[in-house]
Amino acid sequence: MNILIAGDFCPQHRVASSIEDQKYHTVFDDVKEVVDEADYAIVNFECPVIVGGIKPIKKNGPNLHCTEQGVEALKWAGFNCVTLANNHFYDFGEEGVIRTITACKKHGLDYVGGGVNIHEAASVLYKRIDDEILAVINCCEHEFSIATETCGGSNPLNPIQQYYAIQKAKQHADYVLVIVHGGHEYYQLPSLRMQETYRFFVDAGADAVVNHHQHCYSGYEVYNGNPIFYGLGNFCFDNPKFANVPWNEGYMVILKLAPGVDFEIVPYKQCSENARITLLDATAYSEKIMLLNRIIGDSSKLISAANEYYASRSLEYSNIFEPCQMRIYKALKRRGWLPSFNSSKRRLRQENFICCESHRDVLSYFFKHQCDVTLK
Known about the structure:
The protein has 2 domains: 2-297, Purple Acid Phosphatase, chain A, domain 2, CATH 3.60.21; 301-374, no CATH class. The chain has 13 helices and 16 strands. The chain has helices at 13-20, 24-37, 68-77, 93-106, 118-121, 159-172, 192-204, 282-296, 299-320, 327-334, 344-355, 357-369, 371-374; strands spanning 2-10, 40-45, 81-83, 110-112, 114-115, 125-129, 132-140, 153-154, 175-181, 208-212, 220-223, 226-229, 234-237, 249-258, 260-270, 277-279. The longest helix has 22 residues, at 299-320.
């Protein structure tokens, strides 16, 4: 069976106009044939479906959304399933969750990784394709979208829980695919934590692991005979600020599941000069990927690249975790004569930096290497 996986889809700006006018072909014509040829096609749905009047939740970062036409457009493009474990699925609360799931059901799209509570969000999707069964497990890093016992949202990244899910799925399926939403935004390499975790999923029994979220493509490796893709890039995510940069390029993965796992990469440019997805030459694109793969395959180079990236972010992190510690301030604050330096917006940002795994990777580096310099 051939399984196609694509990255982040969020119809906004120019794309939103085309989709609301139901001009789906102007966006997807170049890739529709590739998607249609797959036995099963999966894409990450990066925004909830809402209608006017629904209030966004309070969070760090933007609140994304689209209309039901976004779901209909994906169905038109040939997709069969959407992943909902991402950092925007709960951007408009419970109503956004329910409307998104309702729209998927209405248009015949399977979904995985999101639900009205943690039990539904953590459910494994089993799909019979011809005479074989594919199991899909979808999870995301901890931001503001995580489901609970009583609250809808996304399935959180939890290697222990994913281990048990993989083990159970191996008993009921011929192939197990794990799709994760995580990593450092605009950084084209995985962290050591990501590599260790995704390799663990392969050791646990996953036949392939695919990651997206960073808004740029990354490389891949074949670990113990199974592929791990560390970042697909945006599939369709228009942003007027970006043109002809990594934001505008990505690739779809076609997993060829037979005895063993083979794969093909389908690169494209998206939402650069115009609001469409255009296929790129795979040979030329593979050279870019191989440069990243060489770093991914060399732990010393991967550590060096990560440390360089973390160091570049240190000032940003020091500013958010640098409250005043002078005695006079504390005394005046106790008496109610001074306001808190921690605004609600700042507290949300601190929460995000502490709870999200990728943000904690940077924080760990910052406190280990920079505190003695930056906070003097």
